[in-house]
Please model this.
Amino acid sequence: MTVHDWYVEHRAAYVARALEPREERLFADHLARCEECTREVERLERELGWLPMAVRPALPRPGLTQQLLEGVVRRQARWRRVAPALAAAAMIVLATGLGLNERGQRAQLERLLAERERQLVALHDTISVMRDAQHVIQREIAMGGHQGGLLIFQDMTSHRWNVVMHGLPAAPAGSVYQFWFITDGGMVRSVELACDSNRPAFATVSMPKTPAAIMGAALTVESAISRSDEPKGVELMHVQF
Model:
């Protein structure tokens, strides 16, 4: 509420001669400077001119109007002092919220970019093995009425293989497709391959850390619970180099 709001609220009281003498003089002095209030007072006088105005109401206690005006002015001054601080506090809260949101988004983007980077590195690694493979080995596999196969891209420089199994159904319940290395010291367990007839399994594997020479590879169906160091299940294929 501003000081002028007091004059707006007391226009009808001024026209009805309901203000105390000091208030009436104050209002009259204001009319000399305010075209808006002068115009509204003249309108009210036209509209209320038929009312009897001879009886003056009881006057409020002396000094009440001045106290009200001073109170309004004090509240306005106080608000002018407090408003910048409140605005600054609001800006801090907003900036902090935006900062936290921005940091959260940045962290999320960094995680996403890191994941994309890992995927690109893995894809580049896979393509490099396939491009530089000195040997490509293929074997057909028949299982459960499905005809599939196994592809091995062997890179003798990096000592990594790309292994692709395709066309086979999902492993029986409680079982997994297990890839093995055949060495001159025995079988070495490698990766499990998850495959179904519509989606091939793909893996890039490194040579096992064993002094024994790698002589070939094999694929079996093993128990998903058992982790034996030797094949116990059904052999689907094996190849020796």
The mean pLDDT is 75. The longest helix spans residues 64-132. The radius of gyration is 46 Å. The helical segments are 3-9, 11-15, 21-31, 35-47, 64-132.
